[in-house]
Amino acid sequence: MQDPFDLTAGWLQEHLLIPLLYETGLMNWEDVSYGWALFAVYGAVQVAVTFAVCLPLEHWRPVERWPDSKAVWVDALYTVLSRVGILPFVTYVLFYRIQVWANGTLADHGWVPPTLERMFPFLMGEQVLTFVVYAIILDFAEYWRHWLSHQFRWWWALHSLHHAQRQMTFWSDDRNHLLDDVIAFVWFGVIALLIGVPPLQFPLLVLVLRFLESLSHANVRLSFGWLGERLLISPRFHRAHHGILAAGQRSCNYGAVFPWWDMMFRTADFSRDYVQTGDPSGEEALATGTYVEQQWAGVRRFLRSFRRRPAARSGGVARSV
Ligand SMILES: [Zn+2]
Ligand SMILES: [Zn+2]
């Protein structure tokens, strides 16, 4: 018997995706439309699960209470657009197409693309362990992408949209500029191709990792304890990354899921406790504008970053665009 995910995905494929592809003359995408619909359903379920876990936590022990939380609704829109619309398309449809093409091209040149199992034979048949190893490698790549986005003025101009929120909640993880998202997808996708993540595992990895990232943005007084915080990133740890910097203070805690890279490369700070979040250097539209206003403000800041001469940097972290 088909499970409810299959049934819903089949219905979506039949009544929404195929008519849409037919109308737009893109029927050659039909073969991936079922997978696309299935991961859109998984994405919707993920949003529901995140909501069911994080909302009670935020009510239980909130860091902050706001009389008016209108700005949070825009973050919720970012999350739904990203998890149900963009991520299923990018991680399943695009990734699948590119992987088939890349593997075919490499095979034509007599080269068999790498997979983790072939590089490390002890992983053969160990599906759960392989999944965890893929997650660790991708998280390592995420650490460096995130760190770099704080180093270049143009990149920080885009990434600052993520930091502009003064009312940070579990919805804030997907609050990103679309150009920043494109860079992130390319970065993540290229690494996934290089290490040979199978097409079906890729969206599943993104689902698991993004759930943990949502939790790390939650407005909750939640620490995992001395040891726990060194194993997995907690809301307390990631909040320190979003904190408004005091004079002379450096940005810290760039990790997404595991804090190990921050510890290894000396960017971890476990001492900052439930700081105030936001980015005072950006224009107000980045914080409280509508979705479109935020995106435009991001483009303006991005263009300005090329025009002005670089301001003096403190601690190698560009925060003055
Ligand atoms: Zn950041
Ligand atoms: Zn964040």
Characterization of this structure:
- This protein has 321 residues and is an all-alpha fold.
- It has one domain (4-222, 284-307).
- Helix content is 63%, strand content 0%.
- Helix 1 (4-23) packs across helix 2 (30-60), helix 2 packs antiparallel against helix 3 (70-108) and helix 6 runs antiparallel to helix 13 (291-307).
- The chain is globular, with a radius of gyration of 20 Å.
- The termini are far apart.
- One zinc ion binds at residues 146, 150, 159, 162-163, 241.
Question: What percent strand?
Answer: under 5%
Bound molecules: zinc ion
Number of helices, where a helix is a run of at least 4 consecutive DSSP H or I residues:
13
Number of strands: 0
Query: How many separate structural domains?
Result: 1
* Order of helix and strand elements from N to C terminus: HHHHHHHHHHHHH
| Termini separation | 56 Å
Determine the fraction of residues in helical runs and give it as a percent range.
Answer: 55-70%
Low-confidence stretches: 312-321
Shape: globular
> What Rg is obtained from the alpha carbons, in whole angstroms?
20 Å
Please summarize the sheet with the most strands: none
Whole-number mean pLDDT: 89
Q: What structural class results from the helix and strand content?
A: mainly alpha
Summary keywords:
321 residues, 13 helices, disordered C terminus, binds zinc ion
